[in-house]
Write a structure and sequence with these properties.
Blueprint (H helix, E strand, L loop, with lengths): L1 H5 L7 H9 L7 H7 L10 E4 L2 E4 L37 H11 L18 H20 L8 H13 L1 H24 L5 E15 L7 H8 L4 H12 L11 E12 L6 E11 L18 E2 L5 E11 L3 E8 L3 H4 L38 E8 L4 E9 L10 H4 L2 E12 L2 E12 L15 H4 L8 E15 L2 E14 L17 E14 L7 E15 L20 E12 L2 E11 L10 E11 L1
Antiparallel strand pairs: 1-2, 3-4, 3-19, 4-5, 5-6, 5-7, 7-8, 8-9, 9-10, 10-11, 11-12, 12-13, 13-14, 14-15, 15-16, 16-17, 17-18, 18-19
């Protein structure tokens, strides 16, 4: 306890000052009486220092209540009253303060060098300040300098000690157990610099609706059949061994993430993620299209992998730099201007509904050994932010066609405007290069149709320029309207090397790809913490393509979408408590793969998210 109250306080022991003043100084100013009559309910304590730790306090030093972070910290012990800028020789308590500062050394001020002598205080504050001065007197006696302590001071202190004995006792009773609990917490904490976070998703879901989706070229080939038998043969070939029906068995799956978040200066962040997942993607042989995918899918058989590793640090007051070693993605680093962002995930249940495809320009995905690069965020002003970054898909692999600068990569620049707390507008440009090594071409981030992801084929090196605008406006605390629009021009960087007149790719061939979405968010729907959401939009679609022969036949492959798909999604997140949420959601895809011949496909999920 002596260690606790030996530290200087920010507050003034006014009653001690007044008692000493009565024995040899000018009569007290009327402000003193006003201060003593203040109600404890009107008092606010700033901070009580405990050794080398800091204990923030609530009003009336009610330590049993929830603690708040302090607004300020105390300045070092003052050695001269002249260090207190708002204390003047004409002040009624000047001599008392001078004595306490220069003779006893038990007064401290605020960080800006002020004392704030007219500020009210509680009896608890006074008891703590009195005890600090008592401790100082004891030190003077113990060190043989008792002659500095006047007899009158001893008598005044004795009387005050008796008067505030109950307050001192109660203060000790409150703080001693707290200090003991703090010591236990320090001895058992995981790390002094690292926080451990975890997220567990358990989901129940499935798809239903009819046949799997086929792309426009496959249907064009089927419709060109001259006989019913030929039509059925071509249809069976298009669907393959998996058959035409959706794989509609309901599944129960999980995704587990453990994050280690470290900070060494209080402003930087070292982030390490371990994860495991066995959530099968509702695409490919399941539905025939990426449009039906859930936002958290990815099946690695629940093997534990390093999912993400980055270091974020400030450069000056306005720039933050992020160095991604593993799992780098633009949507993790920049503002995607979508209130239904589900990177936690606690928002959108679909992959498409999370954010504009432009933020997947690097398309590194998640998992081991992908996504390396650097990004920076420059806060030009409170309303304008400029962001930019470069991420290589496999930046840690030295083989040909890979590495930090020789393989697939994405760059992105964004200018975001936030004129007020309700409105946000972002203009975004991205450039990507996908080498085609190991079939890694996914121009639209596995969002839209097969042609939007591979306009010239999965093995044809492709570059693309992406342009996007994203906007959001909060009309009411419980209603937000948001959306985005995007255009991509993809270019074939090599020729296919074939003489075929129906699927020839020439270097320089171009394809135009468009996408858009409108989202409605309803925060606190039903109760605080809940979220309702509706998403409607068009997944990426190829509207024109130079692919193929200039002489078209009914069966010529064109890699151009014939119709338009629409994505409709509804979700409702019920926040059971701060650590648990349950989100039922439904995704409806009309004209999957931008092909009106396909059946409408439905994806239904119930996502349970644990966070701790």
């Amino acid at each position: 306890m002596s260690k606790l109250l030996r530290s200087p306080l920010w507050v003034v022991p006014f009653l001690l000052v007044s008692s000493i003043a009565e024995m040899g100084m000018a009569s007290a100013n009327p402000n003193q009486q006003e201060i003593q009559k203040k109600s404890n309910d009107e008092i606010h304590l700033t901070q009580l220092q405990i050794g080398d730790r800091s204990l923030p306090e609530t009003s009336a030093i009610n330590i049993g209540d929830s603690l708040q972070q302090p607004d300020e910290t105390s300045m070092p012990q003052v050695t001269s009253v002249s260090q207190l800028s708002d204390v003047q020789p004409t002040d009624w308590a000047f001599q008392a303060l001078q004595s306490l500062v220069e003779r006893y050394g038990c007064i401290a001020g605020y960080p800006n060098g002020t004392y704030r002598g007219n500020r009210a205080m509680t009896r608890y504050e006074f008891a703590a300040g009195l005890n600090a001065c008592l401790e100082r007197v004891n030190e003077l006696i113990a060190t043989g300098t008792a002659d500095l302590v006047r007899k009158e001071d001893f008598e005044s202190i004795r009387k005050l000690s008796e008067e505030f004995a109950d307050g001192l006792t109660e203060l000790r009773g409150r703080i001693d157990p707290l200090e003991q609990r703090t010591a236990v917490l320090e001895s058992q904490q995981f790390s002094s610099t690292t926080k451990l976070q975890a997220e567990v998703i358990v989901s129940l879901g499935g798809v239903f609706g009819g046949d799997r989706a086929l792309n426009s070229d496959q249907w064009r080939n089927i419709e060109a059949a001259t006989t019913p038998a030929q039509r059925e043969t071509r249809k069976a070939t298009a669907f393959g061994a998996a058959g035409s029906r959706l794989q509609d068995n309901t599944i129960l799956s999980d995704r587990i993430r453990v994050n280690l978040v470290s900070s060494f200066t209080g402003k930087d962040q070292l982030f390490t993620r371990l994860e495991a997942n066995n959530t099968t993607a509702f695409s490919g042989a399941v539905t025939g299209t990426n449009m039906t995918r859930a936002s958290w899918d990815g099946n690695n058989g629940n093997d534990v992998v390093m999912g993400k590793l980055f270091y974020r640090f400030p450069v000056g007051d306005k720039i933050n730099v992020i160095v991604d070693a593993i799992g780098g993605e633009f949507y993790d680093n920049f503002n995607t201007v979508n209130p239904l962002l589900s990177s936690v995930p606690i928002g959108s249940v679909s992959r498409f509904g999370r954010f504009s495809p432009i933020y997947r320009a690097s398309n590194t995905g998640s998992g081991q050994n992908v996504g390396s690069g650097v990004s920076a965020i420059f806060k030009i002003s409170d309303q304008i932010t400029l962001s930019g970054g470069y991420i290589a898909r496999r930046g840690n692999e030295p083989t040909s066609g890979r590495g930090l600068f020789d393989g697939s990569y994405g760059t992105l620049a964004q200018l975001a405007f936030q004129p007020n707390k309700d409105a946000t507008l972002a203009l975004t440009y991205a450039h990507s290069y996908l080498s085609g090594v190991a079939g890694d071409v996914t121009v639209s981030g596995s969002y839209g149709s097969a042609f939007a992801n591979t306009p010239f084929g999965a093995a044809i090196a492709t570059s693309a320029n992406h342009y996007g605008v994203q906007a959001s406006y909060r009309f009411h605390p419980k209603f937000m309207l948001s959306g985005w629009g995007g255009y991509t021009q993809a270019t074939a960087e090599v020729s296919s090397g074939t003489n075929s007149t129906t699927n020839q790719v020439n270097k320089g061939d171009k394809a135009d790809i468009w996408n858009w979405a409108v989202t409605l968010a309803f925060p606190d729907l039903g109760k605080k913490g809940n979220l309702g959401g509706i998403i409607f939009g068009q997944p990426p679609k190829v509207t024109s393509n130079d692919f193929g022969s200039t002489i078209l036949t009914p069966t010529t492959a064109r890699r151009k979408d014939a119709d338009t798909s629409f994505h409709l999604e509804a979700l409702y997140r019920y926040q059971v408590n701060p650590n648990l949420s349950i989100t039922p959601g439904l995704i409806v895809i009309f004209n999957p793969e931008h092909n009106s011949n396909n059946d409408t496909i439905y994806t239904g999920v119930i996502r349970t998210t644990f966070r701790f």
